[in-house]
Design brief:
This protein is mainly α. Helix content is 62%, strand content 3%.
Length: 209
């Protein structure tokens, strides 16, 4: 499922770029449309009854995979592709069942996972204000990339309220690793549970900035 999304999401962005730049390439556009349509049908077929997706079709639903698939579906829809609203709603409902209470008993990777789930929900128009605020209260335990996801989520929920995002962005700016060749961000430990690397952290922080 991850590979399906990772293939069609760049196609969606390419499709969007062609339209926004007014580039006329009918053959490429047709190929992109076909690739995205095929991927959407594959996701529809592999969505489980409770609304989630597993890593593989035979696996149990996984919150990380489902959140990633939800982002892909929403991006396709916002680019003009017809996406079944029920598929999106079912994915949102599944993700709502995966929330944890962000307390000291939870390992960091679970807190990081919650930040990504909240971001996916907010990006799909279903932001959760109270759970996002609760996660902000334990932000010291989040990895840098999760702080960036949390800032993006808060901005999606209410762009006018910058009190929390300013705090998060200040933390991230202070965490930048500066060198003669530029700046990057790195984590104390690699979060294998959530597909993260220092390169990905840097990309997500840049997106938030």
């Amino acid at each position: 499922v991850e590979q399906t999304v990772s293939r069609f999401l760049p196609n969606v962005m390419t499709y969007r770029a062609l339209d926004s730049l007014g580039v006329a390439n009918p053959q490429l556009k047709l190929q992109l449309e076909g690739g995205v349509s095929f991927a959407l049908q594959r996701l529809y077929a592999q969505q489980k009854a409770e609304g989630g997706w597993g890593w593989f079709v035979q696996d149990e639903s996984n919150s990380l995979t489902t959140a990633y698939a939800l982002i892909g579906l929403v991006e396709a829809q916002s680019s003009g592709f017809p996406v079944d609203d029920n598929v999106i709603a079912n994915a949102q409902n599944f993700l709502r069942t995966s929330f944890i209470v962000p307390d000291l008993s939870q390992p960091t990777w679970r807190l990081n996972r919650q930040a990504f789930i909240l971001y996916a929900l907010a990006r799909s128009g279903a932001g959760d204000v109270s759970r996002t605020a609760n996660l902000f209260d334990v932000r010291e335990r989040l990895d840098n990339y999760s702080k960036a996801f949390l800032a993006l989520t808060l901005n999606l929920i209410n762009p006018a309220d910058t009190s929390r995002t300013d705090t998060l962005m200040s933390d991230l700016v202070n965490a930048a690793v500066l060198s003669a060749t530029g700046a990057h961000w790195q984590e104390k430990e690699r979060d294998y549970w959530n597909w993260n690397t220092d390169t990905r952290t840097t990309a997500i922080v840049l997106s938030a900035l």
